[in-house]
Amino acid sequence: MGTAEHPDGLDAVVVGAGPNGLVAAATLASAGLRVLLVEAADRIGGGLRTEELTLPGFRHDVCSTVHPLALASPALAGLDLGAVDLAGARLRLAQPQIPLAHPMPPRSAGPPAQAAVVHRSIAETAAGLGRDGPTWTRTVGRLARHGLALPEAALHPFDLPPHHPVALARLGALGLAPVSTSARLLFRTAAARGLLAGLAAHGTVGLEAPGSGLAALVLAALAHIVGWPLAVGGSQSIADALAARFIGLGGQIITGFRVRSLAELPPTPIVVLDLTPRQVVQVAAHRLPVADARRLARHRYGPGVVKVDWALDGPVPWADPALARAGTVHLGGTLDEITQAERAVVQDRHPARPFVIVVQASVVDPTRAPPGAQTGWAYCHVPRGSTVDMTAVIEAQVERFAPGFTERILARHVMGPAELEEHDANLVGGDIAGGATSLRRLLTGPRLSFDLRRLRHDPRTLLRPPWATGTPGLYLASAATPPGPGVHGMSGAHAAMLALAEYRGHGRMRE
Ligand SMILES: Cc1cc2nc3c(=O)[nH]c(=O)nc-3n(C[C@H](O)[C@H](O)[C@H](O)COP(=O)(O)OP(=O)(O)OC[C@H]3O[C@@H](n4cnc5c(N)ncnc54)[C@H](O)[C@@H]3O)c2cc1C
Known about the structure:
- Helix content is 35%, strand content 14%.
- It is of the alpha/beta class and 511 residues long.
- The chain has 2 domains: 193 residues, FAD/NAD(P)-binding domain; 257 residues, Polyamine Oxidase, Chain A, domain 2 (Alpha-Beta Complex), CATH 3.90.660.
- A 7-stranded mixed beta sheet has the order 9-8-14-15-16-13-17, with helices on both faces. The chain has a 5-stranded parallel beta sheet with strand order 11-2-1-12-18, with helices on one face.
- Helix 7 crosses helix 10 and helix 9 packs across helix 10.
- It is globular, with a radius of gyration of 22 Å.
- The chain binds flavin-adenine dinucleotide.
- The site of flavin-adenine dinucleotide (FAD) has 39 residues, from helix 1, helix 12 and strand 13.
- Flavin-adenine dinucleotide binds next to helix 1, helix 12 and strand 13.
């Protein structure tokens, strides 16, 4: 298709049907706008797609699988997904008995060292952490007691006055120091220090960076607040539920159409791009002020990942049997080992023993594989754009904690940075976070910018909202904008709300 053919009379076009694009489209449609959603791939979902990557009957989430952010997200709650009926099957999230386990390096003799385990219950988690149990209760436990106020505060980083200032202040006090330091100050045991390091590495890279504790603490607290659930049947069902909601509101979707220039789209007062800054410059350069295009072109991307999906002939043979009940397992051992592995990636090197995130969807969802069999999923960070095959290194890391694992592999599917970007153009150089994660970026988006026109209208809005561009009516909604990566749809909701406010003249930008 050279140009998209659309019905006339549209109010808005959304480009990209990832979770943020879907939420933006549904939010605009629920306000009564006529909205078209355009997606490059043959299927909607972006980071939510599920495919038979290995063998028939084995359903793998190509990208995201674990959905605490989706369950806690005010954007998804606001869209009332529970009311959506997908041909009779409602979207169902299933909770593994254990949200997260973090095994310690095997000893040369004797029983395996006890893994650090995050249970749904704060008390059970603390009991398992021994001497560090009281500290867990005082830190993560106290954050978790804020309930949904904590993710709500964290997912609205730009709002002034802040949502839930006490929760935010407590999170900031604990999370602003680099985890390489705070893990040592807070905890005394190797297991608790390793656990915090793994959570930080899951949320970001560079444990030595200020703010690396924020994502770690939010992820840990979410395990207590909402769990770390998985979508039954695969993450695709979340995308399908969002699309059903959008279509139910009168929205239209075109798939298999890669937008190369905004000129290919029908003229509409609102265009929302679920794209990262480099792509925004590619499709919208002619519509952006030169300074804006330059700022976006300077957006810094983060490291890439290598992801492996396995079809297994049975469960992973973990040395510590508790791990068989965990949805997610962090492999990297001690604080020092994880810090070194992530430091290597930041310095453009490939760690010999990378930090590996393993997800075992079959633990809670038997629909992922034929009877008796299981699926497994793992990734590690690598330098952006790396072409190094990390399969053997990732599998060696699993084998270290689960001797005999490789014998269970029936088939594997490997995606390096190039394959990931081919799958979803937002994964630039294999970066799954929409840009290098830093405290500043999570707060301000691609680039901090001031907008003097806003000052003229309203001094409080001198700072341009990170979802706006220098072109009225053109918005950014992807994970490159606050609150950053993850399936929560909040960037899409923020962009759509801003677009609606300006469209209706509340922001007084549409003169
Ligand atoms: C391997 C991996 C594992 C992950 N695990 C988790 C997890 O367990 N939990 C979690 O919460 N998050 C996870 N994430 C992160 C999560 O998937 C992303 O943060 C999230 O999908 C970002 O949503 P988005 O809508 O901003 O972008 P995306 O989901 O990337 O969607 C962007 C969409 O835009 C489309 N597009 C791009 N260019 C164009 C164009 N020119 N024209 C039309 N369409 C275009 C793409 O095809 C894509 O569908 C993971 C990501 C990866 C890659």
